[in-house]
Amino acid sequence: MGNPTLLFYMDAIKRKINELADSTADEYGVQVVHVELAGNLRKPIVKVFIDRENGVTIEDCEKFSRALSAVLDVEDPIRTPYTLEVSSPGLDRPLKEIKDFQRNAGKLVRLITKESINKQNFFIGRIIEARDDNLKLLLENKDEISIPFSQISKARLEIEFK
Asked: What pLDDT sits at residue 9?
């Protein structure tokens, strides 16, 4: 399952990059949605996904990328050459953490659960509330359902055309 020391090291780098990205995001009026480390240790790829309430533009990504790049150069959490990619998470973005669901309250989500709930494990519904350890959805048939976060296997926003 991989080298535990290497995994710990990569996780520490990711946490530091996330911290630096969050502090930079505040200055640019955007939120860091997700940070990923890809590639290998010799030439890692740092992927940072940003958003704001009405979405981000290419210019927002460019400005944030330049600013974060300067911060990463000074703080130097990655000791090897790396590639920095900054982008929007997209309209059908994955939702991974409680804060992702909270930020998208009122929006339509598609999710798969690890185990059946009410004899199904695939749901499409509008996020009513996300707190404690549960997600509350309003399903298309107007039923409400509470799903424990621990049971969510995969979730992403549904693209809505109005």
From this structure: 78
